Amino acid sequence: MTLAQVDILIPVFNAEFTLEASLQSVASQSFTDFRVILVNDGSSDGSAEILNRWKARDSRFVVVDQANGGIVSALNTALAMANAKYVARMDADDICLPDRLALQFAYLEQHPNCVALGCGVEHIDEFDSPINGLPQPGDPGFADPHWVPVREPYIVHPFLMARTAMVREVGGYRGVPHSEDSDLYWRLREVGTLHNLPVVLGRYRFHTSSISGGSVINGRIMAIGSQLGGLAARRRARGEAEPVFAQNLVGILGKAKTLTAMCAIVEDMLQPHEIKNFYLSVGIKLLELSSYRPYEIEISDCAFIRAALRNRPSMSLLNAREIRWYVSETTARLIRSGKVKAAMALAPVVLWPRCVVKSLWR
After folding, report:
1. What beta strand segments (E) does 46-106 contain?
2. Which of 12, 214, 272, 295 has the most CB atoms in a 10 Å sphere around its CB?
3. Segment 199-232, tens digit of pLDDT
4. Model confidence pTM above 0.85
5. Running DSSP on this structure, what letter comes out for residue 274?
6. Which residues lie closer than 8 Å to 42 by C-beta, 6 or more apart?
7. How far apart are CA 163 and CA 158, in angstroms?
8. Interatomic CA distance for residues 342 and 32, integer angstroms
9. Residue 159: which H helix or E strand, with range?
């Protein structure tokens, strides 16, 4: 049996409305030497029927059914089956442009030190309409696990292509809450370079039902998970033991609901000297996420962040200036939307003149 050059890993859970278009975009690639490993993660809608039609239509499409275990379980199931030189990621609601695989494959072939590769994306909504103003991935080389919050080595996960052997070498996917992608990137950058091609190669669907675009509760979980991934990277660099991520941590955090209660749950994973940095990093990360996600922080988040600011660790002037920017931008947005009590709970008095002026600009 001849092995494909690229195995595409696609977890599928209740995606019947977008799945057909997503798979068609894969089948229409100019690069054809691939296999698609589709993991039906306990879907209860019509996804299974769509998957089975593609399996019957195209021998490159392989379908695996499993009980619902979440995205990390589905991805590791697919990764265990991969035998190609490269693995590529795709989600069941996104769209590949025709040359995506060809350009990524060529770059990795020509740059042996690069272990993982992303690209630019066009953001679209539930109705395929473009969304403007959302951030594009930058240079993963600027990642900094010591920044507050950590600067992640960001690659848009559904458009990742990586060396299969390296993904396995660093341990595959782990249950870092809503941040299994950036946690993988932190580990990959320790064995090679990461890069984003400066060209749009896909349409990345951004909608309120997704994990990343959902409620503020999901935003809180993502803020915590992203900072745990950075904390784990710092510990590895020091030769220290990493946090252990419980398989059901996302569910436990979701039931806690508030940022204060969530952080109390993960505090046992922290060393005493890490707590101040972690709390502030989580709070500012939530401000960053809420600046472009379809949810707004609540007064309980504002009180948490204000307390973390009062107890902040030492940092560079540049880092402190960036934190003030996030706080003042969010406060101005809250004022404009009439959430004055939340704004007052967030911003220190010294920032209020700046925040009020900013609130009048837009």
Report:
1. 61-66, 86-89, 95-96
2. 12
3. 999 999 986 555 444 589 999 999 999 999 999 9
4. yes
5. G
6. 13, 66, 67, 68, 69
7. 15
8. 53
9. none
